[in-house]
Amino acid sequence: MLMHHLESRVGHRIVRVFDRTCILCCLSLTLAVVLSHRDVDALAMSESATRTTVAQAESAPKPASMRLSVSPVIVSGIRSSQRQKDAVVRVRVISRRSIQKSGADNLAELLAEAPGLRINRTYAGMSIQSQGLSPRHTLVLTDGFRTLGRLDGAIDLSRFDLARIERVEIVPGASSALFGSDALGGVINLITRRPRQGWNLQGTVQGGSVSSLDATALASYGWRRWSAQVAGGFHSNGSWDLNPDDDTTSGSAQQSYDVGVRIGWRGDRDRVATLYLDTQRVMKEGLEVRSTGAVFDRRSDTEIFGVGLKFRHPLGGGVLQTAGRVGYMRHQFLYDQRGASAEDSYDDAREGLATLSTRWQRQLPRGHTLSVGIDALAESLESSRVSVDRVERGRVALFGQDDWHLAPTISVQGGARAIVDSGFGNAFTPNLGLRFVPAPGWNLRLGVGTGFRAPDAKERFIRFENTSVGYIVTGASDLLPEKSTSLQFSAIWRRRGRTGSSWQRVAAGLDAHCTWVDDLISTRSLGVQGAQVVYAYANINRVRTLGTVTWVRWKPTSRIQTRLDWTWLNAIDQSKDRLLQGRSPHSVSASVSVRVPRLRTRLNLRVAAWQGRRRYQDLDGNGKDEKVQSPAYTMADLRLEQPISSKLTLHVGVDNVFNAGDEPDLVLKPRLWMAGIRGQI
Fold first, then answer.
1. Is the pLDDT at 319 greater than 80, yes or no?
2. DSSP label at 90?
3. Inter-residue contact 144 to 136 (CB < 8 Å)
4. CA-to-CA distance for 335 and 333, rounded, in angstroms?
């Protein structure tokens, strides 16, 4: 195992990650319980602002992998639920059926062609950009819990197995900033599957090219007041290389497994408790040849453990919901030079995260729904790449929300969050949203929100030297938090025709956004130290992103579903008066799903095209960056499903049909052929 290999090469000491973290979490828990049980009325009287919920989606028909859910009520984690037609915040939802149709193996593949989103591929994994902002500005939640395991400021979405995901909710922009730090660009919330009454057994096995193998299983049982569910998966693939002229691998070989347990209890008077247990391990191995001719084996080993608990019960004429989670991650990374050890590099990072959220909600007269609560967070980090032995941070936030339905066609939702951060003082982030129905079939939404993201530990304390390449990266302990203001607009029109009509169901919409970010954290050159270039983190940029997503969904018959999306983005670095690098100004995606009832066959095709991205690089060594434009590219995925019985379904497919990808501008996994079987009892 990689763990033993790493430990045999580099000794390490076992450290306690949660000593002070758990103490702070316990203090936060005590404070939250006291506020929730004793001071709810006083807090409700004092809160004049309101809170945005990540709970709703517009119900537009959406085929293939991105079809919108049509469930009348959507609940996101511990946030409040509403009827879809009354939702103020625009939320896109990918349903369980759409996930199965997509053929995606992980979250990154599922979101790769989603409108308004962009997948970044680096050595650390596959992360996401939302509305033109960096991956570190997107908050990833699982059942409302903050996800642990950011590498270089981003969450690797490829490690999220879809076997136990019921749906994916996407909230773009800072209208979701009330969830706290990291949510300037939006929120992605993964809702896991709930156990059903009686036995439920499901499994999938799939194999394909690039030595890929995927196997998932889920078993659940529900009876009376209790339910239990166990889900797990194993995934592996070989390494791949886009440039056969060198020995460097473009993509690492990967092997991973994950196990999740969910135990639920339902009592009298709407009392509900849910326990979550999960563990995951991801191991990667690749080969790198540097310009000096040195050959390095590149290995990483990531282990994640977590336990969470949610409890809901009536209180004071309303409902009190409390959720807490403790998580631990260990990430080991090794550069092992063949035939030598002088340039070996090893990092053993250990991260702890404890969160607690308590929310009280009550229906009030005249169409008001009031929610107040408290969030607490404590985190710690130990790594050989930071300049201090241990970094600790705590944060407590009070929030309030009022959902006001003035009339069946008008709804107003406002909120505010007061944050106390142990490292960065106080912050206040209000927001406001409006929903208006001017005519039947129309839905207009307008929102304005503010965001706040404090620098992470690596941005403040990193000290990393790459002597073979010739650079040093240092942190800055005096960094300021990033702050944003975001405008969001959404217009949706939907029409339903009679069965058999060529206009049986059609929907169209426009989503627009404009975001300003002050004190954006980035790196700048400090000159040459010896033979190495020194880079340091600093608040140097002011950024403005402006964009639209235009979409059409059409279901001409009950057998055919289509969609078309066009995304436009203009992201400007105002401090340098140039476009932000790594963003595609235009992208188009389309899909069609065809069902043959007589054979019960279903064919799904997805196609997406992106304009080339721009980056800046000093090519001639004169100290000035030149513009480098990458070529445009097109990707397509094809999947065919054929049920062979009421319990078994065969599927075959091709990912990246056109075999897009080229180094160094476009590192994509080559064309992948796959076949598998899915069963359910």
1. yes
2. -
3. no
4. 7
DSSP label at residue 240: B
Q: Can you say whether residue 422 is alpha, beta or left, with left for phi > 0 and alpha for psi between -120 and 50 degrees?
A: alpha
- Cis peptide bond upstream of 438, omega within 30: no
> Does the pTM of the predicted model rise above 0.70?
yes
Q: What token pair was written down for 172?
A: 């773009």
User: Does residue 483 sit in helix, strand or coil?
Assistant: strand
Q: Where are the alpha helices (DSSP H) in 411-545?
A: 457-461
Closest CA relative to residue 178, chosen from 134, 141, 132: 141
| Residue closest to 667 by CA, chosen among 606, 603, 597, 613 | 613
Burial class (CB in 10 A: 0-12, 13-18, 19+), 438: exposed
The single-letter code of the amino acid at 533 is V
355 in Cβ contact with 26 (< 8 Å) = no
User: Measured between alpha carbons, how far is 103 from 221 in angstroms, rounded to an integer?
Assistant: 26
The 10s digit of each residue's pLDDT in 164-208 is 899 998 888 876 556 666 788 888 999 999 898 899 999 999 999
DSSP symbol at 223: E
68 by DSSP, 3-state: which? coil
Structure tokens that stand for 618 in this block: 């000093």
Percent of the chain with pLDDT over 70: 82
Higher per-residue pLDDT: 70 or 572: 572
Overall size of the chain counted in residues = 681
Count other Cβ atoms within 10 Å, centred on residue 183: 28
Q: Which residue in the block uniquely carries the two structure tokens 């989606």? A: 57
The listed range with the strongest mean pLDDT (21-30, 125-134, 602-611) is 602-611
Which contiguous run of DSSP H or E holds residue 625? none
- The residues that bridge with 368 in the sheet, in sequence order, are 364, 404
Tell me the two tokens of residue 487.
């405008």
User: pLDDT of 21-42, one tens digit each?
Assistant: 343 333 333 333 333 333 333 3
Quickly list H helices, 10-82: 19-38, 40-46
What mean pLDDT comes out for the span 243-250?
Answer: 81
Cβ atoms of residues 444 and 410 within 8 Å: no
Predicted confidence (pLDDT) at residue 61 exceeds the cutoff of 50: no
For the chain, list the domains and their CATH numbers: 2-680 (2.40.170.20)
How far is the first Cα of the chain from the last one, in angstroms, to the nearest whole number? 35
H/E stretch holding 96 reads helix 96-102
- Compute the distance between CA of residue 343 and CA of residue 467 in angstroms, rounded to an integer: 7
Backbone dihedral region for residue 27 (phi beyond 0: left; psi -120 to 50: alpha; all else: beta): alpha
CA distance 359 to 179: 13
Compute the C-alpha angle 373/377/382, nearest 5°: 175
**Do β-strands 295-315 and 272-289 pair in parallel, antiparallel, or remain unpaired?**
antiparallel
Backbone angles phi, psi at 135, to 5 degrees: -55, -30
Tell me the C-alpha distance between 634 and 656, whole Å. 9
Taking alpha carbons only, the member of 497, 495, 523, 520 closest to residue 508 is 495
β-strands 532-557, 505-529 pairing = antiparallel
258 touches 671 (CB < 8 A): no
- In this prediction, residue 45 carries a pLDDT of 30
Q: Report the range of poorest mean pLDDT among 141-155, 315-329, 350-364, 389-403.
A: 141-155
Q: What is the pLDDT of residues 613-667, one digit of tens each?
A: 887 776 666 767 778 888 899 999 999 999 999 899 999 999 999 998 887 777 8
